[in-house]
């Protein structure tokens, strides 16, 4: 039986349920290993006037304390620009910015040392909102622009016009395993780093640069992460560099694991956005021209913000044909930790911006938003090129939408809900449907590559190493299945090894939903090489002069752990026997595979090209129930339909779809990042930052896969699944909007649609409803710069 | 007096003295016993990753319940049998829950998984055939960021359909229960440098200790003290542990109040746990039962006490609006004997109570709503479960022939303490029970409060909620009346 297509258990499930799958904090270390702790800036913006470590260094158990001055190589790093310091260098740019690293024999010594550090900072006025950054024209990097047609004229000529400003908040990744790294020195100036990272290659590069050693002197390994969600794509680098620095300088093993509060206070999140929009449309709701100005909250350095912004622009069309469109975007500099990748990577912000507009059009025309969606949906024959010029091939959106509308009984339920709302004074209900199309590939062309190493042993078992990192998404499980099928063996004969730059160099981050596509294909290619060699050998062994069978590698079949010539199936070798024979006959049983995604290219100067290999598509219907007096929200029912091609592992994919959806629901309805006027994060732990709990899971949640066998661009005709389902949760937010449309004349619902935000919309009156951003703005303006500030942990409030 | 702790971990006996007695259970398990399956994420009892089962003797048998090991001190666990994720499987043989989690793809990244497996096992230990709703309510103390929970629910349902092999079979039960029962009848005192903890068995000893050590941190469930210590808000050195004080965990119901009038009164000892209160409230105070059911999480309710919630004195304490509206009497023991205070007079300011040095809260008497009284309790939070309130309220009205005879309004999270809206109450008395009267009441109530903006909500939000609960109360009653008509 083939492994691909089966719901095989997660690669590490047995270890997970018994608690024996170790994470970095669980690994045994040598008895002289050092524990690391960071010293953070308590100020959002300011100049370090003095940093006195002398008393802290005298604390018993403190081995060393390092600052920017101790970094032998480059102190600055970053995927776009080298604009982010490992340790603050004279200037501090956000509350929670690492200023120094303490290496000690115990966590207790670190606590004592922290209290002895005297850090004086001359505070300057921070920028704590997008609006403030716009006003001061503080932007990071060049803006982005994608346009088609004559938008101004199209909007001017359209029968109806609308305009508005839309806000959506950020989101904490909230991986359960905080940022962590272990490093120890090797010979010849080498350093070995175990990192909880989605990007071992970047860790290797930055460690080498910061330490002033060459790349071949650094090995970075990652066995698993306790969740990543994008938060460990670039930001795992910092703990890794600091652990490596201590290992290099002290010659001892060093481990840094952030606490949850430290992690949340000091690392970046999903970008908050402000979108200014204008649309012209006809009386059927068909969009004739649309313009959107995106401003993202980038934080204090570039990180991946420009790429994230670009993906927002590339997904503003969502599933709709926009004949005349102009999208421009800017990343705002603010004094917050640099915002970074998070599942969806700008896609959610782009998509919700257009879904908001769709609902505004529907309200204006007093029609069902579903009609507006259908009137704008990409066609299969025409109206099917994106604003950036890529053809939407194999467009299943019309079928997906009509199938889901039927199975979810969208129209009937909508009618029933609207009738019910008229008589129910306690509860207000809403329902919304949405399509979703997400482009698969890195929009940075060179990242679309993967490599794999496949080693076969003489008992017929296989070790596979790829550049993909396992963060729970099941990439190891899927690659195991793909490899097992290449040799017709059971998946238990294949193991996925820790990701290491020693085995897989120059890899791309495990990101963009594409890690199975890239690394799985590379592994299959390595297998093809090996199978060719083994088939040749098997052909020789299975050839028979008596039966007239010549040596024919093309007739060799690998099946059920056996190898045979299909012309004479009776004569069989076990796969293990064949592998042993190969070694005896000096045939190489190891091979590498490489894959570069064909045909993807995108010119960001012109905003045109084919950035994506294919699109993953889907649709969702969400129903919500709002307490009219408290704003409390329930989601009683959700229906999802996803086209993920032919699933390699339906159970793993289902887990990605539902997990992604619920995570998106958290973003859309509940997860609130609250800062005070000094730029300190107040919601920095699960007590104050509420991700969905099990009772938030809709009691009825239907998740179906759309039958589709036409994705021949990708390995095993599968489609990437990691990020797309997150965006289906926008339907929950639009369902809130739809509910509100039945209760109030106008609204400007923000995201997240918390109870507080919903109540603000239901009771808009002069004495209430002062926006949070305005409040922050005023407070920021009125706060006098504080002079010398004593060091404090970021969660001392 | 015993000067060491005795506890069992996965069937192994451990005697603990010195610094370890003051460490958190999770630190002890991970750093001392190297049991790394127990993960610590938040260190504040809000994610459940560190869940372990604590087996304690109840009526001669060990009863296992999930607790958050990050906010339990080892000294609280003297006389308990701790079962960690490592103690659930039998060699390589997975337990039914573990196997179901594998088969149903209940783990993705795996970091929350040990905590879930433990909490699920705890649920099955105490509830043989849980419904899907039981699973949901039973697992609110565990966060997962990967799965979206569906696969975990499927695993639970499947595991329940298999023969769950109880921990009472896996580990010796009666013998262990008997030994532990004896252990918890002895007082314990442990000292480590400047730190000390005293766990008396008699109230008198506790009061005497408080007289000599007035700064002692009093710990029962410890679910708040543990958080404050982990987050370095406080660093107490002397502890008084109430966990083996006899009698103070009892819950009883009487039919007469303090004045001798005929009235149902619920009396709870100071360390009556929420888990024990929940079924009693379901029967006798259903409105309060709903609040109790979303109080913290199962892990918190398994150790948290009503006394802790009262003494902690937070303006957002979930139980207080109910206690205020019922005019509960708190019992206080001190060197000069016992006194009772109306809870409405118990708080003097933000987290300041009427307790004097050397005094100990011993219990609370709660008159329950009469048939004529109509009570509604409100808790608004960002998330339904395992969330601290943004706003709380209790509205109790006695309406006869459409006239309001009595009104008691308690509001939380709108001032430094939970407060009674006295002007609103007097406005409401002798008014007709109508929508416009209730709307007017809301407008008066907002003048009686002084909410602030904080991480859980803005002042505007709290003002609006205060206005709205009066109308909500009215419409809820109208609906009930319409239904019964």
TrEMBL record, chain A:
Domain called Aldehyde oxidase/xanthine dehydrogenase a/b hammerhead: residue spans: 18-125
SMART domains listed in its UniProt record: Ald_Xan_dh_C
UniProt-listed Pfam families: Ald_Xan_dh_C (PF01315), MoCoBD_1 (PF02738), MoCoBD_2 (PF20256)
Cofactors named for this entry: Mo-molybdopterin cytosine dinucleotide
Gene Ontology molecular-function annotations: iron ion binding; molybdenum ion binding; xanthine dehydrogenase activity
EC number: 1.17.1.4
PANTHER family: ALDEHYDE OXIDASE 1-RELATED (PTHR11908:SF132), XANTHINE DEHYDROGENASE (PTHR11908)
Protein name: Xanthine dehydrogenase molybdenum-binding subunit
TrEMBL record, chain B:
Keywords carried by this UniProt record: FAD, Flavoprotein, Iron, Metal-binding, Oxidoreductase
One Pfam short name: CO_deh_flav_C
GO MF annotation: an example: FAD binding
Domain called FAD-binding PCMH-type: residue spans: 190-371
EC number: 1.17.1.4
InterPro entries noted in UniProt: 2Fe-2S-bd, 2Fe-2S-bd_dom_sf, 2Fe-2S_ferredoxin-like_sf, 2Fe-2S_ferredoxin-type, 2Fe2S_fd_BS, Ald_Oxase/xanthine_DH-like, Beta-grasp_dom_sf, CO_DH_flav_C
PANTHER family noted in UniProt: XANTHINE DEHYDROGENASE
Protein name in UniProt: Putative xanthine dehydrogenase subunit E
Originating organism: Anatilimnocola aggregata
Gene giving rise to this polypeptide: pucE
């Amino acid at each position: 039986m083939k492994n691909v297509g089966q719901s095989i258990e997660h690669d590490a499930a047995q270890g997970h349920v018994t608690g024996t799958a170790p994470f970095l904090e669980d690994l045994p270390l040598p008895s002289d290993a050092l524990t690391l702790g960071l010293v953070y800036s308590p100020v959002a913006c300011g100049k370090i006037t003095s940093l006195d470590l002398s008393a802290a260094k005298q604390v018993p158990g403190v081995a060393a304390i390092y600052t920017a001055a101790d970094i032998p190589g480059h102190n600055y790093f970053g995927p776009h620009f080298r604009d982010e310091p490992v340790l603050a260098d004279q200037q501090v740019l956000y509350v929670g910015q690492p200023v120094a690293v303490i290496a000690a024999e115990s966590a207790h010594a670190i606590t004592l040392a922290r209290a002895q550090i005297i850090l004086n900072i001359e505070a300057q006025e921070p920028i704590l909102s997008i609006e403030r950054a716009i006003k001061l024209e503080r932007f990071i990097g060049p803006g982005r622009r994608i346009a088609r047609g004559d938008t101004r004229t199209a909007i001017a000529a359209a029968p109806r016009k609308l305009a508005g400003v839309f806000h959506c908040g950020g989101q904490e990744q909230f991986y359960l395993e905080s940022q962590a790294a272990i490093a120890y020195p090797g010979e010849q100036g080498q350093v070995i780093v175990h990192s909880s990272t989605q990007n071992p290659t970047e860790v290797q590069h930055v460690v080498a640069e910061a330490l002033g050693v060459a790349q071949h002197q650094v090995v970075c390994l990652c066995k698993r992460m306790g969740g990543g969600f994008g938060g460990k794509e670039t930001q795992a680098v910092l703990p890794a560099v600091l652990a490596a620095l201590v290992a290099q300088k002290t010659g001892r093993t060093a481990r840094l694991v952030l606490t949850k509060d430290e992690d949340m206070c000091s690392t970046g999140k999903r970008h908050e956005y402000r979108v200014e929009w204008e649309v012209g449309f006809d009386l059927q709701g068909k969009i004739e021209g649309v313009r959107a100005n995106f401003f993202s909250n980038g934080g204090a350095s570039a990180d991946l913000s420009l790429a994230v912004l670009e993906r927002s622009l590339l997904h503003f069309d969502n599933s709709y044909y926009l004949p005349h469109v102009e999208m421009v975007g800017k990343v705002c500099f603010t004094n917050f930790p640099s915002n970074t990748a998070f599942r969806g990577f700008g896609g959610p912000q782009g998509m919700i911006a257009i879904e908001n507009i769709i609902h505004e059009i529907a309200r204006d025309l007093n029609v069902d938003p579903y009609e507006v969606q259908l009137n704008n949906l990409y066609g299969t024959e025409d109206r099917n090129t994106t604003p950036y010029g890529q053809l939407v091939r194999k467009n299943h959106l019309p079928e997906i939408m009509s199938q889901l509308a039927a199975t979810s009984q969208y129209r009937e339920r909508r009618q029933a809900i609207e009738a019910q709302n008229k008589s129910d004074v306690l509860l207000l209900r809403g329902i919304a449907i949405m399509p979703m199309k997400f482009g698969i590939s890195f929009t940075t062309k060179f990242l679309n590559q993967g490599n794999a190493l496949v080693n076969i042993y003489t008992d017929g078992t296989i070790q596979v190493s790829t550049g993909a990192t396992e963060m729970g998404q099941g990439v190891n499980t899927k690659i195991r299945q793909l490899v097992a099928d290449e040799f017709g063996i059971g998946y238990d004969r294949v193991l996925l090894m820790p990701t290491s730059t020693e085995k897989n160099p120059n890899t791309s981050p495990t990101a963009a939903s594409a890690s199975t596509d890239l690394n799985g294909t590379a592994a299959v290619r390595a297998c093809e090489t090996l199978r060719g060699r083994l088939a040749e050998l098997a052909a020789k062994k299975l050839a028979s002069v008596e039966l007239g069978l010549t040596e024919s590698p093309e007739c060799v079949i690998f099946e059920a752990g056996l190898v045979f010539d299909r012309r004479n199936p009776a004569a069989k070798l076990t796969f293990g026997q064949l592998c042993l024979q190969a070694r005896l006959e000096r045939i190489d049983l190891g091979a590498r595979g490489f894959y570069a995604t064909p045909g993807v290219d995108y010119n960001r100067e012109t905003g045109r090209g084919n950035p994506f290999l294919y699109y993953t598509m889907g649709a969702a219907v969400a129903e919500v129930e709002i307490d009219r007096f408290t704003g409390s929200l329930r989601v009683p029912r959700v229906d999802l339909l996803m086209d993920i091609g032919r699933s390699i592992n339906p159970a793993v994919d289902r887990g990605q779809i539902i997990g992604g959806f619920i995570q998106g629901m958290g973003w859309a309805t509940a997860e609130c990042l609250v800062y005070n006027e000094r730029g300190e994060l107040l919601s920095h732990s699960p007590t104050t930052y509420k991700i969905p709990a099990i009772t938030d899971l809709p009691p009825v949640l239907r998740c179906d896969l759309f039958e589709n066998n036409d994705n021949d661009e990708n390995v095993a005709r599968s489609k990437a699944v990691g990020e797309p389902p997150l965006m289906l949760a926008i339907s929950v937010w639009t369902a809130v909007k739809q509910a509100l449309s039945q209760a109030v004349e106008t609204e400007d619902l923000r995201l997240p649609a918390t109870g507080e935000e919903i109540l603000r919309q239901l009771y808009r009156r002069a004495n209430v409803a002062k926006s949070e951003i305005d409040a922050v703005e005023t407070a920021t303006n009125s706060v006098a710069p504080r002079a010398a500030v004593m060091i404090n942990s970021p969660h001392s409030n | 007096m015993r000067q060491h702790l005795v506890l069992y971990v996965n069937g192994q006996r451990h005697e603990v003295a010195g610094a370890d007695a003051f460490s958190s259970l999770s630190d002890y398990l991970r750093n001392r016993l190297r049991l790394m399956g127990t993960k610590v994420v938040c260190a504040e009892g809000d994610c459940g990753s560190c869940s372990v089962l604590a087996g304690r003797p109840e009526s001669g048998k060990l009863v296992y319940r999930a607790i958050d090991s990050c906010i339990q001190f080892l000294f609280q666990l003297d006389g308990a049998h701790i079962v960690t994720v490592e103690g659930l499987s039998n060699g390589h043989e997975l337990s039914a829950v573990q196997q179901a989690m594998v088969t149903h793809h209940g783990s993705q990244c795996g970091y929350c998984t040990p905590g879930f497996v433990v909490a699920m096992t705890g649920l099955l230990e105490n509830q043989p055939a849980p419904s899907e709703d039981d699973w949901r309510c039973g697992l609110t103390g565990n966060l997962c960021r990967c799965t979206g929970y569906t696969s975990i629910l499927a695993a639970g349902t499947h595991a329940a359909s298999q023969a769950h092999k109880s921990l009472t079979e896996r580990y010796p039960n009666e013998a262990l229960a008997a030994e532990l029962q004896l252990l918890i009848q002895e007082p314990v005192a442990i000292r480590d440098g400047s730190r000390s903890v005293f766990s008396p068995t008699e109230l008198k000893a506790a009061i005497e200790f408080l007289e000599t050590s007035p700064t002692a941190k009093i710990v029962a469930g410890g679910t708040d003290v543990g958080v404050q210590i982990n987050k370095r808000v406080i660093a107490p050195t002397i502890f008084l542990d109430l966990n083996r004080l006899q009698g103070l965990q009892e819950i009883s119901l009487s039919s007469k109040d303090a004045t001798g009038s005929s009235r149902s009164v619920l009396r709870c000892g100071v360390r009556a746990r929420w888990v024990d209160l929940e079924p009693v409230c379901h029967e006798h105070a259903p409105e309060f039962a709903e609040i109790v059911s979303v109080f913290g999480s199962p892990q918190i309710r398994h150790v948290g006490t009503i006394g802790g919630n009262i003494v902690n004195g937070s303006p957002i304490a979930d139980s207080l609006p109910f206690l205020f509206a019922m005019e509960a009497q708190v019992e206080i023991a001190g060197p000069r004997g016992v006194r009772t205070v109306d809870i409405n007079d118990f708080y003097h300011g933000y987290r300041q109570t009427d307790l004097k040095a050397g005094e100990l809260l011993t219990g609370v008497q709660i008159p329950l709503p009469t048939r004529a009284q109509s009570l509604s309790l409100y808790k608004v939070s960002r998330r339904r479960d395992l969330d601290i309130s943004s706003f709380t309220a209790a509205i109790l009205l006695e309406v006869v022939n459409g006239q309001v005879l009595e009104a008691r309004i308690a509001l939380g999270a709108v001032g430094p303490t939970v407060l009674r809206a006295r002007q609103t109450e007097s406005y409401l008395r002798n008014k007709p029970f109508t929508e416009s009267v209730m709307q007017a009441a809301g407008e008066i109530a907002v003048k009686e409060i002084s909410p602030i903006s904080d991480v859980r909500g803005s002042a505007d939000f709290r003002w609006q909620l205060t206005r709205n609960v009066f109308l909500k109360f009215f419409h809820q009653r109208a609906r009930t009346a319409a239904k019964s008509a």
